[in-house]
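protien #1 (seq + structre)
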Amino acid sequence: MAAVATAAATALTFRKADPMSRDLTESTTPERPRFGPRSRRTALLVVLGASLLTVGVATLLPPEPPADVVIEGTQGGVSTLDRAIRTAEAKLAKHEQDPQTWAELGAAYVEVARVKADPAYFPKAEEALRKSLAQQPDGNGVALAGMGALANARHDFAGARDWGEKAKAALPDNAEVHGVLNDAYTQLGDTTRATAALQRMLDLKPGVSSFTRAAYEFEIHGQVDDARHALDRALADAVDPGDVAFCRNLLGELAFDNGDLDTAQRHFEAGQRAVPTETSLQQGKAKVAAARGQTAKALAGYQDLVDRQPNVGNLREYALLLSSAGAPESAARQYRLFEEQRRLEVESGANVDLEASLVAADRGDAAQALRFAQAEWERRQPVFVADAMAWALHLNGRNAEALTFADRAASTGWRSAAFNYHRGMILAGLGRSADAVKALSEALRINPNFSLTDARTARTTLANLGGAG
């Protein structure tokens, strides 16, 4: 079995505005990999921390909302964003030649697209940002950073990198610009540049946005305790209810992905107390219910979830749960809705080939799974796309090639039940039974509930191979 956790641990220095600087790795022991195509860390969701990245939006906000403004929604900052957008639109209606306000409006549209899971805002964001750049072509760092954030949201990570580098030239000491670059380089698989951008962000502005990104960085390198510590730091700094809910959701997902259902439930519930309408927390609670065998509760949770936020990630998870619950016709309906949503995302300029590959794999369409995975691999090569390639190749019976991608997926040391499951099934396909038993056992040890269907297959395969089922 090839080495799977040989990457060196990452080291990030955290500091606050006080003298209490410390290196998070100084007293902790690195662990092993974590990720999975069904976790929140996939590209099914908008890039990590996007809710905390909007560049320049705060400058749009009046101290109090005007009396004639009706604030819509309470979910994770939607009201604030609505205020920002309406303030900008009113300002531009009076004076259209205003590159700063166009840039701020575009950034706000990017953020509201994420919060409302509505890709229809992407073209509006691009139009506003390009108007800003047309009016101020030189030194317009806010608009350049906004274009980078938009490209990240559309999963155009090469484009995000290019926009981010231009923004950095204009605003070298802006923390949010380095956040754009960290997101882009992480998704492109360039861990060296991603870490450098993140460290600069931490140096410039230690806080919720940088600490949550640091947690992701630690997870990529298998340092789960350090990731938890970073999220605790983020939560301690969170004041806005939306930030509290965001941190609680990440802590809950971290606990779930490492097999701790009780802690996951506690964080999801605490997050909902901060923002009762936050759908990511509802998704977490439904996932915990499914893992505990509370199928009716989980199905009801997912039905309400997709009614309110039918994004590709939620639709896929609901379809998987329906399939596992023996409701194939209902699952097929969710997959049809997934295709409709995918079409809308593509029409808005987004790339969702990775998501399409995962769904094709779920449905047993091996050729389509590989076609979409290859298209994504040609664009970017992070470890989770390597894992998708490995799995798609396995489904097509090309296990020798699949193993090379499984090795690539394991290269950073991410603690991942799904990665180990895929690796184990590939090794079983190659007739390497002892190695397959080790990988499948590790998957179930990390998180016995990583997938209702795949965990069951892992146990069956282990029993057939003579391992512990």
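ok now protien #2
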Amino acid sequence: MITRRRLPGRPAALLTALLTMAFATLGVLPAQADSPSPSPTEQTAGGDDAPKVDLILDVSGSMGIADIDGRSRISVAQQSIDDVIDALPPEAEFGIRTLGATYPVSDKTDGCTDTKVLYPVGHTDKVEAKTAVATLRPTGWTPIGLALRGAAQDLGTGTATRRVVLVTDGEDDCAPPDPCDVARELAAQGTHLVVDTLGLAHDDKVRQQLLCIANATGGTYTDVHSQQQLTERLKQSVQHSDNSYRATPANVTGTDQCATAPLLSPGVYADREKFSEHRVYRVPVKNGQELRASVSVTPDRAVARDYGVLLQATDGSGQELVRGTDAGSGRTDVAATGLRWSATRSASPTASATGTTGVANGDQVVCLVVSNSFAGQPGVQSDPGLPLELTVDVKAASSAPDGPALGLGRGWIMLLVLTGAGLVCGLLWGWIARWRIRIWQEN
């Protein structure tokens, strides 16, 4: 009878050990599964302000008209707001302001100052908020301009995005102040307050006014036709506030030429750019550093088809160093592109920053040029310009390959490593097999 002696351990475990030895011999170890490091946003989000939303609800007399799904406009709005309150994330700070809820139509003097806080902006007691909404009845006038100013005060200041959602069925019948002028006034303050408008009445004058308010602040306008549409749009506005960036970009005004352009350090910047305009900014970059920049332009109004956004890095003489482009046709929420450029590459002598105010001797000045080919549809205002957000960062120059040849070389290196590992494993496995046969023959 032939007895086979079992080798110590299992073949799979032995093979794993051999593979590890082979990779270690070649200086390559299999990657370990580590938990991902938190991004800078994840690391700091806990210390930022919570997203803030203030909902302005029109409670004027016309909100009693029953023309949405066979129900009155106010009842449709109340139901949608209830649904939104139920879906609020726990960290959101939410408030409700009314207009036209107190004084009757017969009292225009007081009715045109009638805007009040129904539920203050803060962490929401859902039962209290819904109860307050349920008590509202269509009553008075429509002072939208004053309500917008009041909502801005309700939201206060902070690093979080502040969003106003206006639900109304009519245009302001109490101006001045004109609500479009108020919206532009709020946008000019640079506090990143966005106003979304939702119209419950399908009237051209109402639509134009609500579009003007939204366009001035970088918000959106929706012509509401059903209960479901209103609910979905309200929820989207709240979610957009939660998803928006938490740090308010610094306001900056680009120029039309590099020599007079503002000098930017790493950070996030906000500007506005008119249709088919060029905006220029300057960034100092030291030798051995890499410039990384990205730009997004938001078509916050009706624009023509076929458009593009171009981000160029040039030297002081206007010679292009690198570019990034984005183009499209049809409806989109944002057009964005980016670029990277390393200062270790040769630069034009005119790119030197020697003697430039605010720039150290020996630094190079890179001119960032933002261009767009948007065009407005008929009747669309060009002022204010389209919202533009520019992100600038300067890092140590990347060791990434500059071209396909080096990338191909790195691929061949990995192929050689894998081939060598396979050869070593094959030799070891052959030696083990011969050893097992010899042991089997001896027994």
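Residues 50-243 form a domain with the Rossmann fold fold (CATH 3.40.50.410).
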